[in-house]
Amino acid sequence: MAGPVLITGAGSGFGKEVALRLAAAGHRVIAGVEIIAQVSAVRAEARERGVELRVEKLDVTDPGDRENAWTWDVEVLLNNAGVSEGGATADIPEERLRRQFEVNVFGPVLLTQGIARRMAARRSGRIVFMSSVAGLTVDPFTGAYAASKHAVEAFADALDQEMAEFGVTVATINPGPFLTGFNDTMFETWKEWRDDPAGRLHDYAALSFPHEQYDPEPVYERTVRVLLGEDRRYRHLLPVEMEGQAREQVEAQWSREVNDGRRPALVRKAYDIAPGTPVRE
């Protein structure tokens, strides 16, 4: 490819591993990280793995960082930066809810605007959004995160249609429950809330992410293929065995009735499951 691959949120998780793997394969990669302390940490890991990796501070919520990134003439953009706020919709403090959308929606979309216009002028490019199965379905206590990913899905779909005539393709990656720590820490964000605990509807110290979790290898492998243009599908729900379940959940909304007043199964499971429970093979 002519220009570099820009990966946001590359200081940890999916973004960092994908950046390192692409660099190891000889591709030009810019790893965008949120805070300056992550720059040296990711550079050190790249040296340890023997790869050349350009690391830049890129907080997607910072207008100055976004404007700087617009000058990099990016060929492929992976909007991977994201945070996850757990908690019941009736309990989440306002500032935490707004932060969820600033990082997951507004920052990435505004970053994409400048990069997409340069791609359109060049008549080539690829934009990939690291969405989630939560962009298609919703679990209890993940409403804020799922809402932000539903918004990402809408922007990605619109952008794909709007950029087609300019030679730019768009795709989404939709990971399900993978054991990276991301899902479990979502259920610990309540510890930073500045509210009155007595007014909360749920006991967050007793809640955990209500799903068994998979090894993340399939996400790394598929994301690399999508970024390189080797996989031409628009949507990539992972693990693939969850695709049927997600389709059923979406379809079930058309015949769904209001709740019957009893605690749903996933709410019960959130109280019962231990954090970081892996999928049994």
Which SSEs are present, and which pair or pack?
Blueprint: E1 5-7, H1 13-24, E2 29-33, H2 36-48, E3 54-57, H3 63-69, E4 76-79, H4 94-122, E5 125-130, H5 143-163, E6 168-175, H6 182-186, H7 217-227, E7 235-238, H8 243-252, H9 265-272
Parallel strand pairs: 1-2, 1-4, 2-3, 4-5, 5-6, 6-7
Unreliable residue stretches: none
Radius of gyration: 19 Å
Task: Name the strands of the widest sheet in spatial order.
Answer: 3-2-1-4-5-6-7
The total of beta strands comes to 7
Q: Supply the number of helical segments.
A: 9
Principal-axes geometry comes out as globular
Percent range of helical residues: 40-55%
Briefly characterize the structure.
With 281 residues, the protein is an alpha/beta fold.
Q: What can you tell me about this protein's structure?
A:
With 281 residues, this protein is α/β, with parallel strands linked by helices. The chain is 41% helix and 12% strand. The chain has 9 helices and 7 strands. Strands 3-2-1-4-5-6-7 form a 7-stranded parallel β-sheet, with helices on both faces. Strand 1, helix 1 and strand 2 (29-33) form a beta-alpha-beta unit. The longest helix has 29 residues, at 94-122. It is globular and about 55 Å long. The N and C termini lie far apart (38 Å). The mean pLDDT is 97.
State the main characteristics:
281 residues; alpha/beta; 9 helices
